[in-house]
Amino acid sequence: MSIDLSQFHQVFFEESFEGLDIMESSLLALDLAEVDAEIINTIFRAAHSIKGGAGTFGFMQVSGFTHVLETLLDQIRSGERDIEQVYVDMFLECVDCLRGLMSDLQAGTEPDMSQADDLKSQFEVILSGDTEAGTEENLAEEPSADGTKPGSQEGENVTTNDSEEKGWKIEFIPCEDVLCTGNEPYRMFRELQDLAEAESDGSIEVIPHLDQLPEFAKMHPEMCYLSWTIIVRSTIELSDIEEIFEWVVDDCKITYKRLADCDLSILEEHHKLGSDSEAVESETIESEVIESELIESEVIESELIESEELGSIPEQAPEIHAAEVNEKIEKALEKVAAKTAPSATKKPATKAAENTSIRVSIDKIDGLINMVGELVITQSMLGQLGQEFDVSRIQRLQEGLQQLEQNTRELQESVMKIRMLPISFAFSRFPRLVRDLSKQLDKEVNLVMLGENTELDKTVMEKIGDPLVHLVRNSLDHGLEGVKERTDNGKSSAGTITLNAYHHGGNIVIEVQDDGAGLNKDKIRSKAIEKGLVAEDEQLTDGQIYDLIFQAGFSTADVVSDVSGRGVGMDVVRRNIAELNGSIDVSSTPGEGSIFSIRLPLTLAILDGQLVRVGEEVYIFPLVSIVESIQLEKSMLNNITGSQFVMQLRDDYVPIVCLQDIFNTDTEKKDLEGAMLVVVEGDNEKIGIVVDELLGQQQVVIKSLEQNYQKVDLISGATILGDGTVALIVDVSGLNNHSSDKKSDEQTQAA
Amino acid sequence: MATILAVDDSASMRQMVTFTLKGAGYDVQEACDGSEALKIAKTKKFDLVLSDVNMPVMDGIELVTELRQLGEYKFVPILMLTTESAGDKKMAGKKAGATGWIVKPFNPEQLLNTIKKVLG
User: Fold this and answer.
1) For A691, which of A303, A369, A452, A707 is 20 to 30 Å away at the CA?
2) How far apart are alpha carbons A279 and A284 in whole angstroms?
3) Confidence category of residue A562, pLDDT binned at 50, 70, 90
4) 3 state SS of A737
5) A290: DSSP letter
6) Catalytic residue among A14, A70, A334, A511
7) Is the dihedral of CA A239, A241, A243, A247 positive or negative?
8) Are A182 and B14 in contact (CB < 8 Å)?
9) Average per-residue pLDDT in chain A?
């Protein structure tokens, strides 16, 4: 029977990457002054599992490399060796190296072993420092170089003599509690018999010795008081016999002799005794194997395989649908995942690794199954109602439909939850990053992470990783001051970077906060003027100045360092976040630090929308972006320039735009007075949008326009409504930028 | 058919072991650490227990010790899955009452051969 091991590779890679993450975070958490044994154990276990799996699944390079790592870890674990900083650094290097190897293997390419070989030889130097020889050689010899088996040596030294009787005489004196380890002598004899009888003239004879049997009253039923002499008549190798007794060799007495060298008088005696002793032997064995009958009880099997199959369904889908993009709306959920897949990472090697499977807790699956059960009940109830329907039962129908709606919504929520992962997945890389960077920049930094259990859609999580790294790098490089500057300013020598995640309305907010010098307004301003982003005499609010750092081609670092300034600016960060329907803004206090806040939708697949009608068309606004909806009154309106109106909304002035103008729908233009206005907020700015009518609110499944048609400015996606018509989803942030562009255009013209 | 409880914290190992054993007709149940295995073992008696040594929460050695204290599992064969570098682990396992071991890395054939021998 042959089994294709490659079917388990994916799971192996996934758990190995997880193991590496655990190793990394544990190494970082390690306090050398007070070593926590459990942390060392955890690190060891992770390395050990990777080694075991790699060996089993045929990745010998990885298992060979991990072996030396494991050996050193084992010495540390057992207290033979103290852990030192240099080891921690080496282990961290190994983690990186193993990640690389695994990614290569996963992508199906031959891994580059040069770094691994370097590290391996470094480890070997350390290990050979106080152990006499390489461990591997010793181990290879271990089974045969065992002093407790004098017989084996003796046997091997004798040259085979064909004229003499072939085979072995085995003296087997088990320890008394051999049965309590589940080792049944009968099984070994049976194996010996199988081995011997594989040859046509092979045979075995088992001669029990009863001399050690105590008196009946002193006999303990679980103990084994028998010993045996076994005559094997066959040409089998000693090593094959030794293998059979491998598990008991250490606590039982076993000697092997070639039959040719033996005095076989014992046999004659045995034959004389005949069937008597045979009977005793088998009877004894029978009584020993009697075990209490098992009580079968029902066990609910919660097999992981099953849950993982379920969990992987949404992931397989993208591959199927990527080719045939113009699918139906029902598949929009998968589509969104597919859309994000190609840009999920810059590293081509790990691209294959993304979006392959998702680990889902059994509770979520159970909830889902429960929900489906309810749906089935509702369906059968409605079915029954439909069969014998008359108008008098309309109320029951309505109730049924209501129930159906609730079921659907609950089911949807549960399905969405499957894709939700705690943000700690995205945060986990930062301790290492901050540690390495602060070393490199010679700064002292504490990293604080809050709200790590806040859940976020997996796709959003994957896409937010890189922008977050960029922000943290920036905060470390530009935000936090050096130790001297900090102490000179009366601050603690160590700076703090805080990552905080929390839910706010239908969004998740992630903050990257530092207690550094804060953004330098003058520097930003002069830089912006130098780059021609703003006019020299332009008056800007603090917010507008800070906002400049998100403009393309803006960098304030005097020296482009190795850490930041890799050509990826904050503009890319903002764009990445905007692609996720999110926004980023910054607030800063000179001398006290800056806070970058990212707001992201919880999921990309479904949106709570407000349907509005403009002319014949129906548009959708994301409900979260709507501040309020009001009817315009003349007293609220102010005409600033030409056709541009603003409205006074309490203390704010809100620009007003007509969707007709923007989307060029040919409907007659109505008077603004009395018009219905939806005030939306995007990118921290409010804007009033004139619509003809507010329709209902409903959840809509977002379908990407870019994937199915092309990118359309000011439209973030589309959906299909209950009646089958397509409605466009308005990109509120885009609309805001559009309106401010227009405003400044007009201002320039006016000037 | 004989029932086997397979205990390993590594999902890929569990899958491999389960797939192999089920393919050979055994009835397999999985547990991802010693304490889960112990819980399952208490509800149902298995004909054989196959356990990794290094596991979080409760390791394989502890599991064997605990199992041997249950009347039901006094004589049930318990095999440890262990790596060749862990010679002392083999001994610790034996001392705790393990029947024997299967050395990692092993392939499905080796696994089946050993299990067939033990279960007869």
Assistant:
1) A707
2) 8
3) very low
4) helix
5) -
6) A70
7) negative
8) no
9) 76
pLDDT, one tens digit per residue, over A708-726 is 788 888 888 888 887 888 8
Token pair of A679 as six digits: 């005030």
Report how far residue B79's alpha carbon sits from residue B70's, in angstroms, rounded to the nearest whole number: 17
Closest CA relative to residue A185, chosen from A110, A263, A244, A134:
A244
For A126-155, give the DSSP string: HHHTTSSS-HHHHHHHTTT--TT-HHHHHH
Chain B nearest-CA residue for A140: B84
* Candidate from B74, B84, B107 with C-beta closest to A139: B84
- Considering the entire predicted model, what is its pTM? 0.57
Strands A455-457 and A507-514: unpaired
The ipTM estimated for the assembled molecules is 0.88
Nearest chain B CA: its distance from A152 CA (Å): 20
pLDDT, tens digit (0-9, with 9 covering 90-100), for A209-230: 888 888 888 888 888 888 888 8
Cβ-contact A467, A576 below 8 angstroms: yes
**CB-based contact B108 A289, cutoff 8 Å:** no
When mean pLDDT is compared across A342-346, A351-355, A433-437, the lowest value belongs to A342-346
Q: What is the full DSSP assignment across A304-330?
A: HHHHHHHHHHHHHHHHHHHH-----GG
- A24 token code pair: 């990394």
Give pLDDT tens digits for A170-210.
Answer: 888 888 888 888 888 888 888 888 888 887 788 888 888 88
Exposed e or buried b for every residue in A366-399, given b needs 16+ CB within 10 A?
ebbeebeeebeebeebbeebeeeeeeeeeeeeee
What are the structural domain ranges in chain B? 3-119
- The residues that bridge with B83 in the sheet, in sequence order, are B104
pLDDT digits (tens, 9 = 90+) for A574-626: 888 877 878 888 988 888 899 999 988 776 677 788 999 988 889 999 887 88
Contact check, Cβ <8 Å, A55/B18: no
Q: So what's the pLDDT on residue A152?
A: 42
CB A97 within 8 A of CB A149: no
As a whole number of angstroms, the distance between CA A356 and CA A314 comes to 9
Amino acid, res. A398: Q
Q: Which member of A44, A181, A303 has the closest CB to residue B94? A: A181
Q: What is the DSSP letter of A667?
A: -
Cα distance between residue A54 and residue A519, in whole Å = 49
| HEC readout, A377-436 | HHHHHHHHHHHCCCHHHHHHHHHHHHHHHHHHHHHHHHHHHHCEEECHHHHCCHHHHHHH
Quick one: fold of B3-119? Rossmann fold (3.40.50)
Q: Which two tokens stand for residue A615?
A: 């002319």
What domains sit in chain A, N to C, each tagged with a CATH number?
5-141 (1.20.120.160), 150-288 (3.30.70.1910), 422-601 (3.30.565.10), 606-750 (2.30.30.40)
Instruction: Give the C-alpha distances (Å, rounded to integers) separating A163 from A202, A259, A597.
Output: 16, 12, 90
Quickly list H helices, A144-184: 150-157
Strand pairing report for A227-233 and A652-658? unpaired
A540, exposed or middle or buried, with CB in 10 Å at 0-12, 13-18, 19+? Answer: middle
CA dist list (Å): A109 to A65, A106, A114:
18, 8, 15
